[in-house]
Amino acid sequence: MNKEIEEKIILYPSNWLYNAGVIGFLKVLEFGKKLNENTVFDQNTVVLHREWIKESYELLDYYHKEKLGENFSIWGKNKRYPNYIHTTQKEFFKEHFVPALSSANNNSGKCCNWCEGYFIPKEELERLKLNWIKERKENGKKREKNKNIIESFNNFLKQREVFQGIHIKELGAAFTEMPNSFWNLNFSTPLCHLCSYLIIFHHLAFQKIEKNYQIFINTPHFRLTWDLNKFAEKILAIQKKYEIPKVLGNSLLQWTIKMKPLLGAWTMMNIEMIIKKRATIDYFDFPFHITKILLDYEIADLINRIREEKIFDLILNGKFSEIEKVNYFVLRTLIRLKNNESISKNDPVTNYLDEYKNKNQLLNISKLLPELYAKLTTILTKEIDMNEKFINIMVWKLKETGKIIPKEVAESIDKLGFRLLEQIRLGNKDNVFYMLLRCFAGNNKKLPEELVEIFKPEYDDHFKILIYAFLAPIFGEELKQTKGGEEE
């Protein structure tokens, strides 16, 4: 390890409370314009400059006053960290203990269950002890015996080295070493001085949804955790009533579009949302296959371009087969709008689309849904050879074929609209083939090879979505010239 790294502190992801503390710490540094995202994150770790620790405590108070409009307190019976320090220890903590944390190292031989163990070195502890004695004497404890003063100092240190109620009242055990649920009923776990300090920042990592209801997205990757919570903050700033799955899903979606990530299975399986409701802690996470889908750039991009919340809900709930059904209703609605028919509020399409009268949006969705379904199938079935090499390519080819077929053929297919869609929905491949063949042959045109290909048995599982890809530009052709997207 080179000298430059030794002068800094390297933090690795751990449990959610520790991770929240680190993220809250970084938020305070960002508010104080001390943070450079390009240098503080190194792969999945956080690299801290030692001088940031001393500055962070003053910035913590400043953050609460300026951003949250409240005074921050860790002494006495405060609402977050009750009796973290006593009122008489305020100056000592600020002027001596926090600055001493800048010299913390991980070679003390002591144990911390959360990190590598950053403890204040012995020589610095001796200086702290002298300052402790001096302040006790100055605060009216002149007659107190040095032995008792030293014992009180040792008790102060011991409180920084054991996880308990002063760190988070919902989870911490009593100082008498009563078991706590956070650690599966083990006795209070050992902490280092730095971890004990970082915990008092953890509440800042949580996003408030409503009174006494907060969330934090936790992952085993600090940069990912930082970005996901940033996206969650933006989402909640727009819509406070978002459901928990929607907040997490949208955060993953936006991060994927921005970062085009390549994450390992371990990281994907350990993305979770921590939910604080009053004095209780709850957890939410997606099944692995949903997370994997949301972290696929091509799928995330398609969902983003479709811009329909209800279709996004289908994916979050794992109802992938309904996307085929949506495609059918979209194409049917396109035909009805071309015929100047009104769309009832009770029409099945309204169960899936908000902009069901927007002609351009319908055309856009009809072209994107086949591609989305094909990519979902690729990930879920893991039939890499078949899906990767053929299905996605076939969706694209069929959309292009639908755009360039002769006008007279397109008009013939268009006249069959509802009947053709119904046969597709029922899975009557022979009838569909005959109807399309009649449209081409009746105009002395040959069926395109790409279209003939999808009637082969190996395409049975994907037939509907492939034929929808071909029909989308045909049924939407006349609508492209419509001025404005909304039906009048």
For this entry, give a set of tags.
three-stranded antiparallel sheet, disordered N terminus, disordered C terminus, alpha+beta, 54% helix, 22 helices, 488 residues, four-stranded antiparallel sheet, single chain
Concise structural overview:
The chain has 488 residues and is of the alpha+beta class. The chain has helices at residues 3-6, 16-31, 37-40, 51-68, 90-101, 122-138, 146-159, 193-198, 222-238, 244-259, 265-269, 288-294, 297-306, 309-316, 322-338, 359-381, 384-404, 407-415, 417-425, 429-441, 449-453, 463-475, and strands spanning 8-11, 41-42, 45-49, 207-210, 213-218, 272-277, 280-284. Strands 4-5-6-7 form a 4-stranded antiparallel β-sheet, sandwiched between helices.
